[in-house]
Specification:
Layout lengths: L61 H18 L5 H18 L4 H42 L12
Helix pairs in contact: 1-2, 1-3, 2-3
Length: 160
Amino acid sequence: MSEPYNGAVPPVPPPTGGQTGSSVPPYTPDSSAQNPYQQSPYQQTPYQQPEYGTSGSTPTKTLSLIGMIGGIVGLAMSIFGGFGFLFSIAGVVLGHLGKRREGLEAKSLWLTALITGYVGIAISLIWLIIYIIAFIAFGAAFGELAQNGTGDYPMGPLNP
């Protein structure tokens, strides 16, 4: 009586002397290949829920993402008039929070938030200095005009 089939592939017998001139070696199956229908010799463990207080998923990148968006919006608004100061501040704060809480997994996001936030703050401060200088210059020019009624115009007084 024959033995039951256990899923192993029988070895190929060596070629006989009658096959001379054959350049292709005979096929020998890999001994490490397993039958896909054969059960694994390892015991499968059942699914276990994570312990209390630990999360089973990867940490989110929400702080860094919102910080990056705030930094980019702040930078864009700062370039065109300096009104993106608050968005830039939000980008810097959320970038630092993301760096502390989310670590290296979100490094590209929080680093972008910090860079664009700080550059946006710097540009907003430059615009603030320009606005202060312009306000003082226009105030001085119109203040002298209001005091004398004439101003230092080469063509004479404005009010005849």
